Structure formats: C-alpha cells, structure tokens
Amino acid sequence: MPEFGPEELRALDRAHVWHPYGPMPGRSDPLVVESASGVRLRLAEEVHGQRELVDGMSSWWSAVHGYNHPVLNEAATAQLGRMSHVMFGGLTHEPAVRLAARLVEITPEPLRHVFLCDSGSVSVEVAVKMCLQYWRSLGRPAKQRLLTWRGGYHGDTWQPMSVCDPEGGMHELWQGVLPRQLFAEAPPADYEESYARGLRDLIARHADELAAVIVEPVVQGAGGMRFHSPEYLRVLRQACDEHGVLLVFDEIATGFGRTGTLFAAGHADVAPDVMCLGKALTGGYLTMAATLCSSKVAEGISRGEVPVLAHGPTFMGNPLAAAVACASIDLLLGQDWQREVRRLETGLRDGLAEAADLPGVKDVRVLGGIGVVQLDHDVDMAAATAAAVREGVWLRPFRDLVYTMPPYVTDDEDLARVCRAVGAAAAAG
C-alpha cells in the first residue's frame, strides 16, 4: 500500500469515506490520526499548534484502558498466533467460552446465558428478538411492543431506532416507518413519586401488548447525557414482575465501571431479564458486544414452536475479540478501578465547576467518569472542536452538549487539561 500524506488522505476521505452522521461527500475535514498511545492521539500534522491530543472521549467511551496497552496488545498478538477467526456455528473455542463464563460471573443474577454479537446496536436487536420470541413461545404473540422513556438512545439499526427518542432524536426521519413503541416522559434527575406512579400505570395499562421495557439505567447516553435516580429501576422491576413484562437494561455505555459501579444496575441493586453490553467490553480494541439473559427467557424460547434463537452474525464469538475482551475485563478487575473512577469524578467536579458561570451554560453535571456541560443552545461544532484542540484535547460535542468520558488511566494533570478544554469548547460553542 502506498503511503499518503495528510492532504492526499483528506482528499480521498472527502471523496470516498462516509463518516458517522455525516453527509456524502464530506463537508469538513476530519483530523488525521497516525497513532495512539496511553491517552494521547498522535496527529499526522500540527493542528492549531498541537500535534498530540489527550483523548477526552475514550473513542466513543470504549477505550477505558487507553491505547496501545501492553496487556491487551499481548492478548491480541497471542490469539493471532492461534487463530483470528473461526465460524461459531457448530464450533466453539476457549476465548468465547471463557468470555461468556466471565460475563456470567460478573453480571447480576439471574443472567446466565450469553449471546455474543458484533456491535452494541446488534446486541439490542438480539435483546428485542429474545423478548418477542419468548412471548411467542409462550403462546402470547400479541405481546410485541416495547416501552421506554424519552431521551434514550439504543443504536442505529431497526429495532433500536424504534426505542430512541422519536422527537428531536437522530432517528426522527423514520417516524411512521419504524415499529410504534410506547414512550413515557424522560425520567427526572431526582426521584418523584408522581413520575414513578405514571410508569407503573403505563405498564399496567399496556401489559397485554408489552413484550418488554427497555431503558438505559441511571445514565441516558447519546440521547442527551441525562442522569436519573436509580430508584426508577426498582419501580420498573417491580411493575414488570407484577404485570408479566420483561425488563431489558441497555448497559452498552454504562457497563464496566463508567458510572462508579461495575454496571449501572448496581446503583439500584436490581437485575434485568436481559442485559446488553458493548463499547468497553474489549477496551476499545475490536468490535464486540453481548446480550445476556436469564434462564427463564432462554428456556421459554427453547420450548417454543421454533425452539432456537434465529440469529447468527458471521463474526459471532470472534476469537480475537473474545481474547482481548477477557484480557480487558481481567485488567479492569485486577486493579482498584472504583478508586480510579472516583478520582475521575472528583477531578471532573472540581475542574468543571467554573463552567457553570459561563454565558450560555444551562447545567453542569458529573457522575463517575462522565462530565457534561449543557448549553442553552446547539453547539457550534467547528468552533467548539477547534477550541478544545487548541487546549490539546480531543472532544466531540453534539447538539447542546460538551461532554467528556475520558479513559480511566487519565492522570490528574491530563484530566485538568480535559476540563479546561471542555470549558473552552463551551465558551466558544
């Protein structure tokens, strides 16, 4: 392959590469990254006086251990020497089995069964399919709708889009085409009994048609970076049990310690019937996700007229990704990750406090390794990004939000730099 200079790369990128949530051809030039190590992205050329940027995004929340980590590199290299991939139909292998067993060990009871898939969005698709097929297998095919609350985001494939916020969300275009689901109002930050009563009533009224309730526990991610009381998870669990509805937690963004507990469900000590995992599962090295379910769900499906879950991605259970995922989980749990996330939380609270006084700032909120500055207007993406880069930090604001979810290995000095960049981006945007 010939080596391209930055200008040639940008020209080819603009002509041929379709970036996420972008037009084709592209209208802005992305920064060219040539390497990454620790928490830093090395650019192919100097931009706004910077050649290296501290990554304040963990590559969309996945690279919790940073980049080029020797433990994860070794896991990938060792597995490459054995096999990078083998089909999962009719075959199995140690990395996938070991990963499934590890996930069952660390997730809440009664989650006992693991379906390995290749992206977070697909894990939600699989979760929905599990719930629909469970009720069909029990002779109740009318239970085919989903309930969620507004402000959520669950992915870009079909069923996940149907439970994203239908108004003002990224998938508003598909109203009238997607399955029509049920939406409660967005959950308040603090516990309100009137809101909880409304959730209970909504589930009770629609129990005969509801297959499942699906929510992001405690933190709504790309739908708006909102935090809500864990008590609502207990309300949902009780109402679902009372009215015969399955409960699904989408922990793709919140899993593996990001909110201060290993899984956000731990804030409420509540277990779902189905759980979706992704993003940090492999430490940001390879794409892999997982859908876990209880024995009740698995056995219900297996007793049905079609006694199999008819889903099987080509790269399901990929040995390379599974090996790195096992190494990533061991790396996380082999250290005092809670102390590190608490350190991030303290640094973000202290570092972002002054942003509350900036003109146009509506709210500043922090939970675990998540820091959010919400504006009273949509962010000027170009201006905000440039301001962060000038501070030596990579951020990716969206809508009215400038936020950061840094790698857990970000030290205090770099964390302070990230906070300064968030403030600069908020002021410029």
Automatic annotation (TrEMBL):
One of its GO terms (molecular function) is adenosylmethionine-8-amino-7-oxononanoate transaminase activity. Keywords: Aminotransferase, Biotin biosynthesis, Cytoplasm, Pyridoxal phosphate, S-adenosyl-L-methionine, Transferase. Pfam families: Aminotran_3. It is found in: Cytoplasm. HAMAP family: BioA. Homodimer. This is Adenosylmethionine-8-amino-7-oxononanoate aminotransferase.
